[in-house]
TrEMBL record:
Cofactors (names): pyridoxal 5'-phosphate
The UniProt record lists the keyword RNA-binding: no
Stored Pfam families: ACT, PALP
Family: Belongs to the serine/threonine dehydratase family.
SUPFAM superfamilies membership: Tryptophan synthase beta subunit-like PLP-dependent enzymes
Name by which UniProt lists this protein: Threonine ammonia-lyase
Keywords recorded for this protein, A-Z: Lyase, Pyridoxal phosphate
PANTHER family: L-THREONINE DEHYDRATASE CATABOLIC TDCB, THREONINE DEHYDRATASE, MITOCHONDRIAL-RELATED
Native organism: Pacificimonas flava
Lineage: Bacteria, Pseudomonadati, Pseudomonadota, Alphaproteobacteria, Sphingomonadales
InterPro entries referenced in this protein's UniProt entry, alphabetically: ACT_dom, ACT_ThrD-II-like, Ser/Thr_Dehydratase, Thr_deHydtase_catblc, TrpB-like_PALP, TrpB-like_PALP_sf
Origin: domain of life: Bacteria
Length: 413
């Protein structure tokens, strides 16, 4: 159904578009559950409802917009095929549904895209081309191929059909939990929050919509304020690490989104760990951004009925392991203690006995004699250990110091 200016004040996407998208994609994407998390509610002070989009076949909500776009194409467009530039969830969602519908699909990725992402996208039936060193290079090449081969470009966020498809996430949340009074939605290019805001404001005009961006990539946050911001760094939330937000999505966000908050990497890491530890669900950094916002800005959300879309679960297993270990360290269950010893026989033995007395498990020992600013007869020992909690760790450190050892903890960033 075409957008009606009277419904949206002239915005590119209307509630009618979202409803039409929901009807079009019904049965071809999973209607994921929206469930209350009592434990996260207790931790944050808000009533927290989770929309498990990480349960989609490709583990991300991106399928919705990609499929809605594909279904809108003419037979001629389908026969010629589609093209996109993406190294993330958009490529997999588009590849999966294009292959399922018999539409040829080409995905252009930067040359240094991790092999696992290339293989996953090829596994969904896409022809993957590697071009350039950056996303911008890949994007430019994809637009060139679009023109040369008569392909249809499917933008990851700045397209009305894509935005309407993503809006079905918000539509389903309010259909399932109408008492929600706030949605907290991650922002990269802005497609998900634009669609969700369009649906939510139509269904419940007093609904508050809050966007979340990684502090390293505050692109939409800066654009709304007319500020020049730096977008750079290696964020855990690579799915929303977008330097240049959409023009179409900016127009919708400016009109319908109430606020945008920023979250640091520390909060993103904690949120990923909490989802696995409490909800037993794997969520990527971008998918955990909503919870990270609740942790970083508790007063803003306390007492509200908050809906959080877990927009994706595609996280590298080694990175996930690192995040979980860092979380254990921050909670005092893992620690690295740097202990200054005298260069005497039995020193390490006596230190180890103190660990045994305090029932702390030694995981690794590293002796340093050369690369240190201590005198030639001095040495440093780093001991990685496992404790029950922060209080247990404090007792261990106090016990070592009581025996005359100089001890400091090696802190995480």
């Amino acid at each position: 159904m075409a957008t009606k200016a009277s419904e949206t004040g002239g915005l590119p996407v209307s509630f009618s578009d979202v409803e039409a998208a929901a009807e079009a994609i019904s049965g071809s994407v999973i209607r994921t559950p929206c469930l209350k998390s009592q434990t996260l509610s207790d931790i944050t002070g808000a009533e927290v409802w989770l929309k498990f989009e990480n349960l989609q076949f490709t583990a991300a909500y991106k399928e919705r917009g990609a499929l809605n776009k594909l279904l809108s194409l003419s037979k001629e467009q389908r026969d010629k095929g589609v093209i996109a530039a993406s190294a993330g969830n958009h490529s997999q969602g588009l590849a999966y549904h294009a292959s399922r519908l018999g539409v040829p699909v080409t995905i252009v990725m930067p040359q240094f895209t991790p092999v696992v992402k290339v293989k996953q996208t090829e596994g969904h039936g896409a022809n993957v081309l590697l071009e350039g060193e950056s996303f911008d290079d890949a994007y430019a090449f994809a637009r060139t191929l679009e023109a040369e081969r008569g392909l249809t470009f499917v933008h990851p966020f700045d397209d009305p059909k894509v935005i309407a498809g993503q809006g079905t996430v918000g539509l389903e949340m309010l259909q399932d939990v109408p008492e929600l009074d706030m949605l907290v939605v991650p922002i990269g290019g802005g497609g998900l929050i634009s669609g969700c805001a369009t649906a939510a404001k139509a269904m419940k005009p007093d609904m508050e919509i809050v966007g979340v961006q990684a502090a390293l990539y505050p692109s939409m946050y800066g654009k709304l304020r007319g500020e020049t911001v730096v977008c750079d760094g290696d964020s855990l939330a690579e799915g929303i690490s977008v330097k240049k937000p959409g023009e179409m999505t900016f127009e919708i966000i400016r009109e319908l989104v109430d606020d945008i908050v920023l979250v640091a990497e520390r909060e993103l890491e904690r949120a990923v760990a909490l989802f696995l530890g409490i909800e037993k669900t794997v969520v990527e950094g971008a998918g955990a951004a909503g919870l990270a916002a609740l942790l970083a800005h508790p007063r803003k959300f306390r007492g509200r009925k908050v809906g959080l879309p877990l927009c994706g679960g595609n996280i590298d297993t080694r990175l996930l392991a690192n995040v979980l270990l860092r979380d254990l360290a921050r909670n005092g269950r893992l620690a690295r203690l740097r202990i200054r010893l005298k260069d005497r026989p039995g020193q390490l033995y006596h230190v180890a006995r103190l660990f045994e007395e305090h029932q702390a498990n030694i995981l690794e020992v590293y002796h340093q004699r050369v690369f240190t600013n201590l005198p030639a007869k001095g040495l440093i020992t780093d001991i990685e250990c496992e404790t029950r909690d922060a209080e247990h760790l404090d007792r261990l450190v106090e016990g070592l110091r009581a025996r005359g050892y100089e001890v400091r903890m090696v802190e995480l960033a």
